[in-house]
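Renewal narrative, Specific Aim 1. Our central claim is that a sequence can be written position by position from structural information alone. The example that follows is taken directly from our test logs and has not been curated for this report. It begins with the structure tokens describing the chain, in the order in which they were read.
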């Protein structure tokens, strides 16, 4: 940063919207700057003034008797601004990509607003509100959260040289790299082939490049705070000691540590937990509990008056960050402080200040006017972007291909790895009168089983839909807590009423017996419908249903699932789908599961029927369609099935006719002859 750029930045940053001294009068501002500067020793003050003279010379300004007082005032006020305005300090440290919209409030309102007029860190801390000494910042990756934390560490040092700061991360190498970055702001540059009168090496403020302009200049930060600067390679790896500190017997100014380390006997005034929770230590609940315990133990190294900053990315709904958020919610309820929680994690914007000052942001928020849309319907203009200059829509959509990683790294909501949302308004928009239903199509049914009639048990759900034009039209639902003896009757009743071509039943223990009983009950109605067992797939029941629920949401967004106004149990469908999340918090998921079975088992037919066919492919596609119709007994093959009869007879004559053709086939043994052929 050059002198003219520095002066322009000072003018702008004095007016930052969240700057603590934005409205301070000029006289008080300068008086505070003098008080801060006067804490330095005479030697340090002289060093600072000589360094400032170099900055002026490089900027083309000549120091004279006429301007020396004004230039000294400028020096003191610029230093004071860097000590009290973190956003300005970030710019001074050459982080020019940070923006007023995204980062200024974090820098100047979330992080501690420091006061360099206090002689020591301890004096300042003991006058500070103890209820505001705990902070947690969760913002998306590539959003400069650790960079702001790094600059905040630098600001603590230039305010209180005697302070002690522990940087703790998930691993020691990561913490060491963090401290190395902090050291880099204070390390001078060797003047090649030059020595002083005693033959010692000469160092100067290092050259830095402005990434925006591409120009090089001496580090303005080092010219303003030379009393803290060191020669390259000074000190131990993983530590930094400012030469401005007058205390010799103490912990280093900054020290690196990994979460697994034990540092008994050490005490620090500031504890920074930056990325202490990582993917590698949250793989299992045992690992999560171990990390949480280690954090609790290491907090013992903090002085009673000290500060804690937690910076990171949420990985699991039970990790250390999640526990802080849960405690905020519990305390709000217990203390009646709900007004101290603003927004929500689901919305992508959350603030609280009950036990811990929490600042959580997602990479985007859905605009208020777009909140009734489901995810599949949301487009670029439906979002408010947290950091639009860097985290663009195109970038985020590419990152979103990894859904689990996206929920963690960019939404700060690990629950969304296993969560879906179906707005009630969307369901109502997808509900149509019977007059808009197609006149013909393939009728199918799906059954989600629950083998209990107890009041606390799940429901058994039988959904019936018509497939036409590539769309599912949900025309009926039967739902109840039926016993294992009642369920077969209910399924058979649906088969008799709607005459579906196929019934898909969730596979579970006793499915063979169930199919036999359903066939027996259908025989009483003198009908026969092929029954198909449906596996829940790999994983637990919940994760399997969740994976099947996501295609349902996509099909809703693509206008491929509709509900009939005349559908029995429509309000129950609305209620369950709009409250479904795919997490353990769901009270019921039987309707969602039944729709998932419909989509999973019969989606291929809907895709085939609804897909547009180019002219040159009509002949080949029509042959494939004919094969499919023949297998399912639909279209021109509707009057034929594997027995040479209508597969859904409704009269005694048809049943008798079926028995004449296949006299040795018992009615209670009817099943789909192609169910194990691997065709669907």
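The sequence written for that structure reads:
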């Amino acid at each position: 940063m050059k002198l003219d750029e520095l002066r322009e930045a000072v003018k702008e940053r004095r007016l930052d919207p969240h700057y603590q001294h934005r409205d301070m009068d000029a006289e008080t501002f300068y008086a505070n700057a003098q008080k801060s500067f006067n804490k330095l020793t005479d030697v340090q003050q002289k060093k600072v003034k000589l360094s400032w003279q170099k900055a002026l010379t490089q900027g083309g300004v000549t120091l004279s008797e006429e301007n020396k007082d004004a230039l000294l005032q400028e020096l003191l006020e610029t230093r004071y601004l860097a000590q009290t305005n973190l956003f300005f300090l970030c710019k001074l440290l050459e982080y020019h990509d940070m923006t007023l919209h995204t980062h200024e409030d974090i820098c100047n309102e979330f992080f501690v607003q420091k006061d360099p007029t206090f002689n020591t860190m301890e004096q300042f801390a003991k006058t500070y509100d103890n209820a505001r000494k705990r902070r947690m910042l969760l913002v998306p990756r590539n959003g400069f959260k650790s960079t702001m934390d790094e600059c905040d560490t630098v600001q603590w040092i230039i305010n209180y040289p005697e302070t002690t700061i522990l940087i703790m991360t998930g691993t020691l190498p990561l913490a060491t790299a963090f401290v190395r970055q902090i050291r880099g702001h204070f390390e001078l540059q060797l003047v090649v082939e030059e020595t002083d009168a005693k033959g010692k090496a000469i160092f100067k403020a290092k050259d830095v490049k402005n990434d925006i302009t591409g120009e090089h200049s001496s580090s303005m930060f080092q010219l303003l705070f030379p009393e803290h600067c060191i020669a390259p390679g000074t000190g131990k790896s993983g530590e930094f000691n400012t030469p401005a500190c007058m205390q010799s017997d103490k912990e280093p100014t900054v020290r690196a540590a990994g979460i697994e380390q034990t540092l008994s006997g050490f005490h620090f005034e500031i504890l920074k937990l930056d990325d202490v929770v990582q993917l590698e230590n949250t793989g299992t609940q045992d690992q999560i509990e171990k990390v949480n315990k280690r954090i609790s133990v290491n907090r013992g190294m903090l002085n009673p008056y000290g500060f804690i900053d937690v910076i990171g990315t949420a990985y699991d709904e039970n990790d250390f960050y999640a526990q802080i958020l849960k405690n905020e919610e519990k305390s709000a309820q217990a203390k009646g402080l709900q007004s101290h929680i603003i927004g929500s994690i689901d919305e992508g914007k959350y603030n609280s200040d009950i036990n811990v000052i929490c600042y959580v942001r997602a990479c985007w928020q859905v605009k208020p006017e777009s909140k009734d849309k489901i995810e599949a319907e949301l487009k670029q203009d439906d979002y408010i972007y947290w950091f639009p200059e860097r985290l663009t829509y195109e970038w985020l959509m590419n990152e979103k291909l990894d859904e689990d990683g996206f929920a963690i790294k960019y939404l700060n909501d690990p629950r969304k790895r296993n969560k879906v949302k179906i707005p009630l308004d969307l369901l109502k928009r997808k509900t149509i009168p019977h007059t808009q239903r197609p006149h013909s199509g393939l009728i199918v049914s799906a059954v989600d089983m629950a083998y209990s009639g107890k009041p606390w048990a799940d429901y058994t759900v039988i959904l019936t839909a018509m497939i036409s034009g590539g769309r599912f039209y949900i025309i009926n639902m039967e739902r109840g807590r039926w016993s294992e003896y009642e369920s077969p009757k209910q399924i058979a009743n649906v088969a008799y009423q709607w005459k579906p071509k196929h019934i898909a039943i969730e596979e579970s223990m006793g499915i063979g017996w169930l199919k036999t009983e359903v066939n027996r009950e259908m025989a009483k109605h003198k009908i026969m419908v092929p029954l198909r067992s449906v596996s829940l797939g790999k994983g637990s029941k919940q994760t399997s249903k969740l994976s099947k629920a996501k295609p349902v949401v996509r099909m809703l967004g693509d206008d491929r699932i509709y509900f009939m106004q005349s559908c029995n149990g429509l309000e129950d469908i609305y209620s369950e789908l709009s409250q479904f999340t795919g997490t353990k918090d769901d009270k019921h998921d039987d309707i969602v599961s039944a729709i998932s079975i419909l989509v999973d088992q019969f989606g291929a037919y809907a895709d085939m029927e609804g897909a547009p066919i180019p002219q040159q492919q009509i002949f080949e596609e029509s042959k494939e369609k004919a094969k499919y119709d023949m297998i399912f007994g639909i279209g021109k093959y509707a009057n034929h099935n594997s027995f040479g009869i209508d597969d859904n007879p409704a009269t005694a004559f048809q049943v008798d006719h079926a028995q004449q053709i296949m006299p040795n086939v018992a009615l209670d043994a009817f099943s789909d002859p192609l169910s194990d052929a691997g065709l669907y």
